[in-house]
Amino acid sequence: MSDTEVLSLSNTKKKGILRILFSRIVVILLLIALQVSLWISVYGWFRDYLPHFSVFTTLFTFVMFVYLFNAVMDASAKITWLFIMSLAPIPASIFLAYTKSNLGHRLIRKRVDALTQENLHKLPQDETILDRIGADRNGTDDLCRYMAKTGCYPIFGNTEVTYYPLGEEMFQDMLEELTKAEHFIFMEYFIVQEGYMWGRILKILADKAKAGVDVRVMYDGMCEITLLPYNYPKLMEKEGIKCKEFSPLTPFLSTHYNNRDHRKILVIDGKVAFNGGVNLADEYINHVQVYGQWKDTAVRLKGDAAASFTLMFLQMWNIDEKEPEFDRFLNLQDSEKKTEAGIAGAPRAAGYVMPYADSPLDGEKVGESVYIDILYRANDYVHIMTPYLILDGELETALKFAAQRGVDVKLILPGIPDKITAYALAKTHYYELVRAGVQIYEYTPGFVHAKVFVSDDEKAVVGTINLDYRSLYHHFECATFLYKTDCVADIEADYQATLQQCRQVTFETIKKEKIWMKLLGQFMKLLAPMM
Question: Are residues 63 and 111 in the same domain?
């Protein structure tokens, strides 16, 4: 296919100002302004009753503090809410009640729970695989059993894995695999933006749809206010492509950053799947450079494990479908597997692969649990790449404890930030982590968007899950856990190569950090769970 064969459905370019207007920081500042206005109004209108109002406010604040101390909530989130409550008790209480009620996602929660339960056994676990993993006596089988309880996330053999150290390398193989599609193409991405990357993909999708392939695309509703026109699904349907927005933003019913679909999934015919940090926009493949070199990673799965991403996609796609379809797509892979040459189930690649998802609606912190399990069970090293470092107490403790017991713990973070507030906030963790023996590096050529864990030449995770509150608590996420696959060595080799392009964070560099950056980080830490 020629590089010029791209398709565009709209010339609309959205402005970033809408993202700012919908941000939580703006909401918090508005709450404080509302509280100040309330005090001024009360003083002007009810000057004689001001002492009574002060007593009421004090008692009300005390009651809310008691409520927060007893609420089921992360400790850092409690501290943030206590801070906001102390500044603006009445508006903050209203905002807390609004977010806790989760008006925009009640129906989604019920539907997601129902679909998860209905499909809990769609992909049965091969117990012989668990037995082989259990024989290693390193606890990996325990992690697999935990994952089975939280959803339908079996661990598979028979899966060839290719690791991509850059988005542009993945992109070329993605185009090639798309042209091979015969039955269906499922795409679920946080960001879709018109340009060179999406234009080339879209041209193939439109051609495949015309040839009778079932093509479905889903993107997060945030795209509507920042990147794509509101009628983009209809424009896609004109090309024969089924298209949905996940949770479109609705005034007063959406809380913007809560429960967004941050996943990146491409499944082709149930045989091939792509997963990683790469969204469908030009900066992710360095076609344009906004923050220097964009370092991103992904994996391609060929074989049995691709079925998990088929199921994950269908669970999200069918949230608003009256008659959801699962078996037709899952059984397609089974029926075609029986016709393949050789003995069914014979290993085609070394190691084991476990795709998994993390939902903010089930009360389980699956993504964080996998990361912490790797940190606590590591013997030699844990090497991590992440764009953001906004840690809760449990994850910070796990990082420090691993380093303190002699594990080589390294973190690679961006050298050029995409969000200055998140960058400043990450730096507030540097001193304590370095003091515990964690080695921190910043990628000097640009921005690291990769979400990678690799440990002991045996385990790795590549996916969408950042080390921040949004990914670990608020967003729908997904990732691929790899155990003893050949590409674990490729991931570690890429890590070492990337390390050569980094500057190390030391006590001296921390001391020399700009004062304004330190102050910004300290202020933002008050709001960390809301970022």
Answer: no
